[in-house]
Amino acid sequence: MVRVKSRYLLCEVNVSDRSRLLLLDDRAVATAVRAAVARTHGDYGSALCTIGFSVKYLNAHTGIVFLRFPKRSYKLLWSALPFITSVESRGQKIPCSLNCLHVGGTIRTCQKFLIRYNTQQLHLMLPQCKNEGKEEKQQVRKAILNCSLPGGNKEAFEDELEIEEDEEE
Amino acid sequence: MRWFVETTCGGRTRGVFFRLCVDDLFLMFFSFQVDRLCRCSSPAGARVTDRFNIMSGVDEKDESAVYRRVVLKNASPYHYLEVCLVLQDESTRLSAVELKQFIISGLKSLYGEVGAALTFDLLKYDEDKLTALLRVYSRGLVKLWSSLTLLGSYQNQACAFRVLQVSPFLLALTGNSRELQLD
């Protein structure tokens, strides 16, 4: 009985229209998850959701969410995530779906996974930007080399944000 | 081929088998009470073999006198519940379909869509006494019973489900000493 354990789910929000992704808010995502759990698992599910659940981190540019669930009931609550069809924020309904990438015991392990995942994504994007000029290729290469473990991960995040936005345009 | 030695430790009817090499064999005779000794390739064969059975006489007597208790876990895939619905207004009548719909609505409010999808059957229904026999898979018993407990109102009148009998075997529900009438 030394420590309260929880599970952190690293989810990706898939939206068809990328510009609407920026409207996302962590409270909006939390209400969407609670509503889906209440629909799927009833009063029992919403009771499980009140105590340990929170949205720990939301990146509106890349659509990455960290959800925190209590360890005892995370599988039940995880099973309700595919039933989310839209997130309502600031009066607008954004049709989206939540896709879970990783389950970790701490935020740190989720961050380590996220850095590796982002480097893989950048590696995938590199061959696609061959025809668009050498500057972007150099930026992508620099970002890949800059990615490091939790000490300097904030810089790695910011670099990747800018580059992903450039790539899309 | 190995040597198998069966010993009875502490009054058990079935002994423990030891698989040994020849050197340990003599050590076994000194340290344990040996019931059976044989040389074959597997413990199953050793159990069957009776050729070198040292204490064979004792075993046979034990077999007939010993009391065996058989305990079955998860013996039946279904559980059967006999329930009675008690309503505030005693004259209302429900049909079988309405009762099943009512129970499903209770499951839905407590356990959501997943709970409402729990399959259960209404095997017998007595409309006058509002008594029903339900059958549910054993894994769903807790969900069904808890939703019956928390079901409080039917069409704006207070109601309660009284669970009279629960058993994994249908035959056990035929006799009930509470409702026994000696006439």
From TrEMBL, chain A:
According to the record, the signal peptide region is: none
What function does this protein fulfil? Component of ribonuclease P, a protein complex that generates mature tRNA molecules by cleaving their 5'-ends.
Its name, as the record gives it, is Ribonuclease P/MRP protein subunit POP5
A GO term from the CC aspect = ribonuclease P complex
The family this protein is said to belong to: Belongs to the eukaryotic/archaeal RNase P protein component 2 family.
Q: Which organism is it from?
A: Scophthalmus maximus (Turbot)
Keyword tRNA processing: yes or no? Answer: yes
Give the principal location in a single coarse category.
nucleus
The gene is pop5
Alphabetized UniProt keyword annotations: Nucleus, rRNA processing, tRNA processing
The GO annotation for biological process reads: rRNA processing; tRNA 5'-leader removal
Kindly list the places in or outside the cell where this protein is found, as annotated in its UniProt entry.
Answer: Nucleus, Nucleolus
Q: Which GO terms describe its molecular function?
A: ribonuclease P RNA binding
UniProtKB/TrEMBL annotation, chain B:
Q: Which InterPro entries match?
A: Pop5/Rpp14/Rnp2-like (IPR002759), Rnp2-like_sf (IPR038085)
Q: Select a single GO molecular function from the record's annotations and give it.
A: ribonuclease P RNA binding
Gene3D superfamilies, alphabetized: Ribonuclease P, Pop5 subunit
Q: What's in the keyword line of the UniProt record?
A: tRNA processing
What Pfam families does the database record attribute to this sequence? Answer: RNase_P_Rpp14
Which chain positions lie within coiled-coil regions? none
List membrane-spanning regions: none
Q: Which GO terms describe its cellular component?
A: multimeric ribonuclease P complex; nucleolus
Entry's Gene Ontology BP terms: tRNA 5'-leader removal
Has UniProt tagged this entry with the keyword tRNA processing?
yes
The record's similarity note reads: Belongs to the eukaryotic/archaeal RNase P protein component 2 family.
Q: List the protein's name.
A: Putative ribonuclease P protein subunit p14
